Amino acid sequence: MLDLSKNPLFDLNSRTLSVDERVALSYARARLVLRSYNLSISDVQSFTPKFWAMHLDPILPLDFGCFTILAAHLNLTVGTIARYLPQQPDLIPLVKSLLNLDTVGVFLLSERGHGLDAFNIETTATKYKNGFILHTPREEATKFMPATTPAFGIPKVAVVMARIIVDGEDRGSRFFLVPICTAKEMYPGVTSTRLPRRSGTSPLDFSMTSFNHVFLPASALLGGSLDAPTDARSAWWDEVWRIPYGSMAVAAPLMQGLKHVAYIGAQYSLRRHVRVHGPTPVPIMTFPTQQLAVLYAVAAGTILDVWYRSINLWTTASSTAWPWW
User: InterPro entries, per this entry (predicted)?
Assistant: First the structure.
């Protein structure tokens, strides 16, 4: 396990910073973490122990904005693209840029009008000559809510789910690779509207993203097939196969955070003294009510950590090995 706590980026008191300064710090920390672990394409695709070790780094509960960037970037964007590298090796330079966080990957699936029913998304990619026209047909089809602004000096690229339309026929939903912004500005036809900050969380530049007749080359389609699936729902689940793993990753910093809380609570309970019946102060850890709370947190953190690591081993064993890489 790496010791990132000694790095100056994690020694800053972010509570004294402005919202935008905190967001910028989260991006800088995410880049530091990813470069420190130096993950390969195979690590991401095959869920190696090194891949899960990054998610379980005890530094991540200190900045959930940083973890949010990493979780979506690696699990959803890089993981989705990596599946198609054997058929589209021209994407390898992009994936290497993503793994170095020189470029941030964004996963645009759900829409303002389609969250849990994302199978029914409305964004379209209409076949046009040697490419596609990506378009948001109405406000409810705006992609919600990954961070897509150029405000923090990092280029962003997205995997965008859209319905393929060929000669007026709906061929089902597929992922397209779409440049979102440079380090300074949005690409033509792409609009990002930043959402208000959510209270009680690490801030990020969460946004609503829409497309106005954006031309995409044929190579933007991940997988390349224009055929309509025989089973549209099964095909859709196959497209979004990384989501269950991404959902599992979200629990990692929460369990590390529980262990942090248990340690802090135990140390405080040993240090804090009060007078009870006699003149000599005693630590509040001597009270059964305090012992129960601390020991419960220690037990829960330990058991969940063992359980989570066993699930990690299952994902590694069940993944497809990549002998070509």
Answer: Acyl-CoA_Oxase/DH_mid-dom_sf, Acyl-CoA_oxidase, AcylCoA_DH/oxidase_NM_dom_sf
